[in-house]
Amino acid sequence: MWIRSSMTYRTSFVITVLGNLLVTGLDFVAILLMFSQVDSLGGWSLPEVAFLYGLSATAFGLADLTFGSMDVLGGRMRDGSFDILLVRPAPVLAQVAADHFALRRLGRITQGVLVLVWALLTVDVDWTAAKVLLVPMMLVSGGVIFCALFVAGAAFQFLAQDAAEVQNAFTYGGTTLLQYPPTVFGKDFVRGVTFLLPLAFVNWVPAAYVLERPYPLDLPHWAAFLSPLVAAVCCALAGLAWRAGLRSYRSTGS
């Protein structure tokens, strides 16, 4: 329904997608401005940072397209319209994810892919079969990890009633964080996003293997291939949180 609605005015849709592409592209413009003044950022060159950026932006774009509407849950609980979803013969999570589905978010994915392609063409890497395999693995696993964050954030809204901005801090904030090399952050912070909230497995850890860069925490080389496992664990935990939140829901009380 939302796709049909957005495609009713084709010209408006195309302009919106292009606008989304240009606005999200400002993040990379900021990186380009930094490199106009320095030769490296945390010891990483522009193509290497662009590689991180493209991976993070594309993976997050895929998650944002599919689960980016989860922040409407708080508003639905406040006005009582969430109850309507509960009586429909369809999974509640799927209904919430599809609510206000915005196809214009393809602009973010397109922008991320363009930067990633440029990075792959310019970065100095001795490609092997394992490194080639890691690129699509990072995109898929990273997208799943961000999807799990969206679901976990939505589950938290059952407790907080309206926590959309808290959710955005970990989703939108997380993708912005991963667009920069881990060497520009303190080791304690890197430990936090590696072992507590494993955002580092979206791109930092496997990208360090591809680019042959030492990871700040001296992880073993095989850790670069753990992204699918980390994504599966994140999904399981997010699913448990969602089920617990859904069971605790008691309507608006009005």
Main sheet makeup: none
Helical run tally: 12
Q: Give me the strand/helix succession.
A: HHHHHHHHHHHH
On the 0 to 100 scale, the average pLDDT is: 90
Q: Care to count the β-strands? A: 0
Helical residue percent band? 55-70%
Sheet-strand content, in percent, reads under 5%
Give the CA-based shape: globular
How far apart are the first and last residues' alpha carbons, in Å? 29 Å
* Count of folded domains: 1
Low-confidence segments, given as residue ranges, are none
Spatial extent as radius of gyration? 19 Å
Structural class: mainly alpha
Pfam families: ABC2_membrane_6
Transmembrane segments: 12-38, 50-68, 136-160, 189-210, 222-242
Protein name: Transporter
Keywords: Membrane, Transmembrane, Transmembrane helix
Molecular structure report:
This protein has twelve helices and no strands. It is mostly helical and 254 residues long. It has one domain. Helix 2 runs parallel beside helix 7, helix 3 crosses helix 8 and helix 8 (129-160) runs antiparallel to helix 9. The mean pLDDT is 90.
